[in-house]
Amino acid sequence: MAKRRKPTLAVWKFASCDGCQLSLLDCEDELLDVADLVEIANFAEASRAVQRGPYDLSLVEGSITTSHDAERIHQVRRASKRLVTIGACATAGGIQSLKNFKNVKEFVSIVYASPEYISTLNKSTPIADHVFVDYELRGCPINKQQLLEVIAAFLHGRKPAIPGYGVCVECKLQGTVCITVATGAPCLGPVTHAGCGALCPAFARGCFGCYGPKGTPNTGALAALWASQGMRRLDIVRAFRSFNASAEAFRRESEAHDT
Ligand code: SF4
Ligand code: SF4
User: Band of the pLDDT at 2, cuts 50, 70, 90?
Assistant: First the structure.
């Protein structure tokens, strides 16, 4: 009987820190199962052996920050039957999208010794601003169990079972005392997509919003609560401007206080 062809998997990097690709390598035991189910055909961080496309599933890490990358992502899309973006960089522009709020030329002149060699777009943008994306997996970095779920779902032709609720639900599920209620500490958990297992609140720290906005985040109510507790406008702006600064809901809320 003819052997069934394994689906091919490709992993692509754009502007990013590689942390989300490392989440895949960090799957250790599970990676052997993944390798059993798919042909890892193009994954520069794992192997120099590269097979030519097209690929059944592409995972894309990183945002678009150069004109070269703005062209390259279209090649990746053409070579991919399904394309999934992984991480805050790819789904929201990442921490590097802080430049979207300022004059990028000023940053370049301060950061680089020879700015004349730097060629960059004015904005860092998510992959979905450039090509059609089949699924967006959030997080900075992504949760490896969620990544395995997304790969399994696409292999079986079903929708990934990733919850859309916020971090507060994860606190409740784990019996973590709400630090906002108990201590008044600022926490982005009420507006942030679940995925980390409410890691920071479990250590009595407010959520930093690594997973970006949840489905229908009431950022205005959260900002109003912080303001009523005496939080400065600048600090409200800063709270919404981190890994997911350019995600629509966080961007709008930070701009509302940036006056
Ligand atoms: S989302 Fe975070 S961990 Fe992933 S590549 Fe970007 S900066 Fe790195
Ligand atoms: S600590 Fe933060 S994430 Fe947890 S329940 Fe309170 S507000 Fe929500």
Answer: low
How many angstroms separate the alpha carbon of residue 110 from the centre of ligand 2? Answer: 38
Residue to mutate (ligand 1; options 59, 69, 86, 89; most atoms within 8 A of CB): 89
What does DSSP assign to residue 97? G
Q: What is the pLDDT of residues 149-177, one digit of tens each?
A: 999 999 888 999 999 999 999 999 999 99
The DSSP 8-state label assigned to residue 206 in this structure reads -
DSSP string, 119-176: ---S--B-GGGTS--SEEE-BTTB-HHHHHHHHHHHHTTS------SBHHHHHHHHTP
Q: Measured in whole angstroms, how far is the alpha carbon of residue 80 from the centre of its chain? A: 20
Q: How far apart are the first and last CA of the chain?
A: 69
Smallest CA separation from ligand 2 atom 1, residue: 178
Ligand 2 closest atom vs CA 189: 3
Nearest ligand 1 atom, CA 20: 4
